[in-house]
Design brief:
The chain has about 600 residues and is α/β, with parallel strands linked by helices. Helix content is about 30%, strand content about 25%. Strands 18, 19, 20, 21, 22, 23, 24, 25, 26 and 27 form a ten-stranded mixed sheet that branches. A hairpin with a 5-residue loop joins strand 19 and strand 20. About 55% of the residues are buried.
Length: about 600
């Protein structure tokens, strides 16, 4: 956390003043009159006035019962709702600084976020987490910063810019600003009770702070083992069936807006259940800058859920009261005497157009704009993080050697090349490819992918793989936003475009680039950690839109899995199946890593026979 919360509400003088005002014996600091109040417990909307003393709600009472106040706000029949709480997110996914993020979401009624800064941690180590805390400390937005549990996300399968051990987590959790252990992504390490992950989870348990999870595709014995270790939440929902299965298992669910294609079936399943489970909260997880600018953050998730048929009172309860309970923050999530004065005035629960936003008893935004400039922190420590020399076309070619199994025919030599099949839910595969001058000629129906280590802890040499099920690429896309180690990653249809896109990113010291026919046609500079920009959100959003439009010329997307977002998660080696990282083709089912891009002699013999 970035403030001395929630202990700050226990000040005796503050409570004395609030009690006196609630009795009618003293004036409120702020009195909100002529409005209605959304009750996050019962789901009702009732007429009431709200009296505030400092950061505290002193009274929620019948209309016009009290009139004495230093400042009076006329609600004009609008509805007061608690401040929205985003229970799991990454500021880095919006590619902006915390200051810019606060400017974007505060006017929309989002007053609290739970930030896992593991992107910064994977690039800069503890210094990255320090920067996240410092950059959030004096914002009007409440930022609960978590201690990243998986730096890297899959130890031994990838190399990040740092390595967070149990001792690292214990030191981070000892800080009052740290709100818990961020999503535990190394699922197999927890399930197999490996010493490293067991120690990290245990550090969280012994700190008394929550241990947040990442339980993608876990069921049965594996899910029970994951939860028995002490991990208590998940946001990696893959279907409505998966949602209900994990709710029944007792997991706290952070239903995320970043997988919009799943929300309709999840809403249908919850509506058929007939009530909103108390363990269900909402989160954004990842929001691209154009979506944040045009649609919002957690408020957008609430609107989409109600648009899919969820009762608005349910969606708001999940985003407020349920979230506060999950975070053990009894001061948040409810408009009631004795709670923290975080609230918004909206026209309707469905539209969530905020006219006034109040945080800690102070009006911080009106009519879509913050009232004061949020403080910015010194971002210079985040510069210069891309430590890669310029690359050439030959760096993206597969060379065979004397040990590579091959078939020789009249038309020439062929080799069997290992492939990673389909985006997101990856599988192992292999294809025949022609050899010319000791180099593999990529077949027309594969996508080239390369990952280059960029943190100066290993040689910055591209590791190569062929992808199938990724469509035909007429260009290339390179990015230093590549979860979660954020090494330089590129996809494309030919070596010329791969080299051009990568070199543009290297020259910018981080960001994204699109190349077509050897020419760079779109760029998005992210010079801070290779992840962030200090540009205004509207400018960054416009450049991101241009880059997306350029990508539409490169490949024909096939939702829901072959989408632009798939490029950023293709290196997530903590998930099941094969992935390409800076260590080569890896799969935690075949640990240790480093599968050759070519089949072994035994595998080759099996295929050819």
């Amino acid at each position: 956390m970035t403030r001395h919360e929630p202990q700050d509400l226990n000040n005796r003088q503050l409570r004395d003043q609030a009690v006196a005002a609630a009795r009618g014996d003293a004036a409120f600091d702020v009195l909100i009159r002529h409005g209605r109040v959304f009750d996050a417990i019962t789901g009702e909307i009732r007429r009431a006035d709200i009296g505030l003393v400092g950061p505290l709600i002193a009274s929620v009472h019948d209309s016009d019962l009290h009139a004495d106040a230093t400042e009076t706000i006329d609600a004009a029949d609008r509805i007061a709702i608690p401040g929205l709480i985003d229970t799991h997110m990454h500021v880095e996914s919006s590619m902006i600084t915390p200051r810019t993020y606060a400017d974007a979401v505060l006017p929309r009624g989002v007053t609290s976020i739970v930030w896992d800064p593991h992107e910064l941690g994977n690039v800069h180590g503890v210094a990255g987490v320090d920067w996240a805390i410092d950059a959030s400390r004096d914002l009007d937005l409440r930022v609960i910063v978590l201690a990243p549990s998986c730096v890297p996300s899959a130890l031994g399968l990838e190399l990040a810019g740092a390595d967070f051990t149990e001792e690292t987590l214990r030191a981070l959790l000892a800080r009052p600003e740290t709100g818990g252990v961020a999503e535990v992504m190394n699922m197999q390490g927890v399930i197999q009770r490996e010493q490293r992950m067991s120690g990290i989870v245990q550090a969280g348990l012994e700190s008394g702070k929550p241990v947040f999870g990442h339980a993608r595709s876990l069921q049965g014995a594996h899910l029970n083992a994951f939860m028995a270790a002490g991990v208590s939440t998940d946001h990696e929902i893959t279907s409505a069936e998966d949602l209900l299965y994990k709710l029944r298992a007792g997991l706290g669910i952070e239903l995320r807006g970043s997988h919009d294609h799943l929300l309709p079936e999840c809403v249908t399943a919850l509506n058929e259940l007939g009530h909103l489970p108390a363990s269900l909260t909402l989160c954004t997880d990842d929001v691209f800058p154009d979506d944040l600018h045009h649609r919002g953050g957690l408020d957008d998730v609430v609107r989409r859920l109600t648009g899919h048929g969820m009762p608005a009172s349910w969606a708001l309860r999940a985003a407020t009261y349920n979230a506060a309970v999950r975070l053990s923050r009894p001061d948040l999530g409810l408009l009631a005497a004795g709670r923290r004065a975080d609230l918004s005035l909206v026209d309707s629960l469905e539209a969530l157009n905020c006219h006034i936003v109040i945080c800690n008893g102070r009006t911080v935004a009106r009519r879509g704009r913050c009232l004061k400039e949020q403080p910015e922190s010194d971002a210079r420590p985040l510069l210069g993080s891309v430590k890669v020399h310029r690359l050439c076309e030959s760096d993206f070619r597969l060379r065979i050697d004397d040990q590579t199994p091959r078939v020789t025919a009249d038309t020439g030599q062929s080799v069997r090349v290992r492939t990673i099949d389909q985006p997101r839910f990856t599988r192992h595969g292999s294809i025949w490819a022609e050899v010319r001058d000791e180099f593999v000629i990529p077949p027309d129906d594969v996508t080239l992918m390369a990952v280059t280590h960029r943190h100066a802890l290993a040689e910055p040499r591209p590791q190569l793989a062929y992808l199938t099920g990724w469509g035909r690429w007429h260009g290339a896309f390179a990015s230093t936003v590549s979860h979660d180690s954020h090494n330089l990653t590129v996809f494309g249809g030919n070596e010329q475009d791969l080299a051009a896109a990568c070199n543009a990113v290297i020259d910018m010291q981080g960001g994204m680039a699109v190349a077509i026919e050897g020419k760079v046609v779109a760029t998005l500079p992210l010079p801070l950690s290779g992840l962030l920009s200090d540009a205004p959100l509207d400018e960054l959003a416009a450049r991101f839109v241009s880059l997306r439009e350029a990508m539409d010329r490169v490949v024909r997307w096939q939702p829901p899995y072959l989408v632009f977002k798939a490029c950023f998660g293709a290196t997530l080696a903590c998930n099941a199946g094969p992935h390409l990282t800076d260590q080569g083709i890896v799969d935690h089912a075949f640990f240790p890593p480093g599968l050759s891009p070519f089949l072994t002699p035994e595998e080759f013999e099996s295929v050819t026979s």
